[in-house]
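Slide 14.
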Amino acid sequence: MYSRWLFVLSHVCFSLALSTYHALGPVRCVRDDTPDFTDQDLLNSCPGGPGSDKFEHADRCTLTNVVDNPNTRQFAVLGDPQLNCGGGTDPITVTLGGSHTVTQTNTVNADVGLDIDGLKIGGGASTSTAQASTVSNQVSYTVPPGRQAVYVAGTAQISKTGNIQVNYGDRQYGHFIWFTTATVTQLTPIPDDVQFDVHESACGTNPTDLSSYNS
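Slide 15: predicted structure.
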C-alpha cells in the first residue's frame, strides 16, 4: 500500500510539473534529502544507458502520457545528384533516383542521450533499426544548363510525443517510479505513403539541401 501511494504521489507531482513547467521551469518530486540530479541522471540509469552514480539501474524506461500529433512528411535524397554545370548551353537527359532506408526517428527536447528499450534517443534526431523500410524509385529527367537535380522521396510519418517514465526495482529516494520533464517526439514511417519529386537547384549550391522540403 505504501509503494502504491508513493506512485500516486509521484504521478501527481509529475502532472503538476507538466502544468507549471512553462511558467516556472522544471519542477521535481524531491525530498529534503534528495541530491541534485538532472534528467540525464535518470535517463542514464535506463536499460542500455551508461549508468548513473545517483540511481541504480532501472528495470525499464517507457514513454508515457503519449499524445498523437498531426502526421508529418520527411523528405530524403534518392541516389546521387546529376549536374549540368560544365559551362555548356545544352540540356542533358539523365536518370535520377536510387534507394533510401527510412527508420523510426526519435527526438528529445533536451541535451540528453541514451538507448531506451532499443530506441535511440538523443539531443537531436537519431535513428534506430526498428520499423525500417526501403524507398526506391527512378525517373528520367532533363537538366537545363547551369542547373543540377536530385530525386527525393517524402515518406509520411506518424508523430507521437510523450514523457519518459523510469521504473526501479527498489525505492530511489522514496520512489519506485520517477518521471522526466524531457519530452520525446517519435516519428514512425508509413511505408505505403510516399511522395516523389525532382529537386532542381542552381550550380554552385548544395544539391542535397532539402530545407525547403523539411522546414
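Speaker note: The two ends are 50 Å apart (CA to CA).
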